[in-house]
Structure formats: structure tokens, C-alpha cells
Amino acid sequence: MRGCATDPISSGVVRVMLIVNPFATATSPAGRDALVHTLSAHFDLDVELTTHRGHAFELAARAAAEDFDTVVVHGGDGSVNEATNGLLDPPGTSDPSRRRPSLAVIPGGSANVFARTLGIDPDPLLATQQIISLLDSGESRRIGLGHTDDRWFLFNTGMGMDAVVVHAMEDKRHAGKAATPARYLWTTVSSFLKQAGSSATFDVEIPGRDRIVGARFGFISNTSPWTYLGPREIRTNPTTGFDTGLGVFVATSTGVLRNLPLATRLLTQADPKAHHLFRDDDVDEVRFIAEAPIDVQMDGDYIGAFRDIRFRHRRDALTVIAPAATA
User: Fold this and answer.
1) What count of other Cβ atoms lies within 10 Å of the Cβ of residue 45?
2) Which among 13, 16, 50, 152 counts the fewest CB atoms within 10 Å?
3) At 228, which helix (H) or strand (E)?
């Protein structure tokens, strides 16, 4: 579906592909129609609705091949992750000199961590006006991304506890239950209690550091906050950002008594520290190694169980339509 530009900016008609996940938590037909009407009044607009997992990847790859100027994603963090991987070549073959469409996000999911971290308004209609203003003024910025050998991530990945929670939440969504903050909190608490008796551990390797043995869960962040509990920011690595390396947050215990003080510090935005915690807010490479496969999530999507997975960082990997970074 296409719309005609009636108010092109001075540099010429801007070609925009709008990718909509119609199944995302905060999207609706009426809201989608309003976004299409607003965007098509400004840009040469191609509207695409996703129909299956991986479809946002396919559509964004086509946008890159057909030289679109910008890809706007209206959906949750999973859809944005797919589109980013479609815009860019796999990390091992990526050519930074090749022109790519910029990426813009109109929140449409339950968490919208990436959009909120970029400073995009949580209201879809206000976010649309914000994106239009930024495009009209030519305002964008380059951000760094994390990646495995074959996949990019925007804000966070992890092995162990958080992946178990994400996996459980996906099962609940497939069963027709809404992904509310209260359900996330209860799923986190119940999963934590269940995992407290688990013997599954992994080791962590960081170049130039001693090996961390017996990790129970670990987060790798590309920015901060890592996630939100409703309006509350959760900052596991407070000084990690899109212009730094990766943040590492690894705990060697899932004991409730040992983690309650740490959870309190996270909820009150105090500096995260504990005797069983390793944290570094700026590293270039991390490797998780387990004897048996352990669950891994990436940008809030469960991606499977792994025994050996390596994470690296690429600076200035992606152009995003977003306000200038603030301190």
C-alpha cells in the first residue's frame, strides 16, 4: 500500500517504508490508519504489514535493496530487532561504507525499550509527529550495536534468568494472556524462585580478565536502561550507552536472600553492586560457555538454548531517527 507525498522536504521526496506488526500489543487498525494518513501526507510511503515471524527482516532487507531512505517500524522490540537485522548485513560480512536506510521507531509493543531509550514519545501519534519533525530537519544519529556471529542486537541480550522469564512470557502470550507489567513482575519472581534450585551454570570470558566461573545468569547491555518495570527504569549498567562498549552484569547466585538487596538497588536506581556480582559497563567482547544448553534472549525475544555464544560490539553501526543524545 502506497501513499503520495504532498509536502516533500527541500532535499527531495523522502521514500519511507512503514513496517507494522498488526499483532503487537499496542497497535490497532484505527491507530495504524492514523499513522498512515499522517506519514503519507509528508513522504512517499510504502506500508507493509507483517504476517509471520521474520517478516520484518524480509521487508527491511527489501527496503535496503531498493534504496529507501528510512524504515519506520510500528511494533514492539522484537519487530525492531528483526528490521535492524534486515537493514544490515550479518555482522561478519557487514560493509560499513554501504548506504543503508535509517531506522525510526513508533512504539507499538508492551515494553518499547529501544524507542524509550532513544527518547521517542511513548504515544504512537505523538511519536509519529516527532519522527516527521526529525526527518524534516534532517536530524539523525549513529549508534553502536551489539552482535553475535550472525545477529545484531539493539539494547540487551542475556543467558539464564532473564531468558527464562522471556521464554515463559512468550508461552503466556501464545496462550492468549496479555504482556502486562504485573504479569512480567510475577513471572520474574516465580521464575527466580524456581531457578534458585537449578544447578545450571556457565562461565564467562572477557579478554584481559580472569574467567568468571559458575555464573547463574548474565546480561549483556548495549545501552541503559536495560528494561522498564512500567514507568520505572532498570539500569543494570548505568554508564553503558549507545556510544560505549557493552555492559556486562553477571551473578553467580540465584539465592533469594543474596539477591534481594541487589534487586532493591536496581529498583531504587542505586549503583548495582553485590559480592556475587561482576559488572563492567564498557567492554568490547564477552563469551558465555556452558556444559549444557541454557536459554538465551535477545532484545526481549527468546532465541533458543546455547552452550557457547560470543557477544561483540560495533561502533556507529546504525543510523537512527532520534533526538540528540543527552547526558
Assistant:
1) 23
2) 13
3) strand 227-229
Q: Compute the radius of gyration of the chain from its Cα atoms.
A: 20
Mean per-residue pLDDT, 63-81:
96
Distance CA 144, CA 132 (A): 23
Sign of CA dihedral 59, 60, 63, 65: negative
Strand, coil or helix: what is 60? helix
**Cβ contacts of 195 within 8 Å, gap of 6 or more:** 160, 161, 164, 216, 217, 254
Q: What is the mean pLDDT of residues 80-98?
A: 88
Q: End-to-end distance of the chain based on CA atoms, in angstroms?
A: 40
Q: In this predicted model, what pLDDT tens digit does every residue of 183-199 receive, in sequence order?
A: 666 666 666 656 655 66
- DSSP assignment of 13-42 equals PPEEEEEE-TTSTT--HHHHHHHHHHHHTT
Cell of 305: 538454548
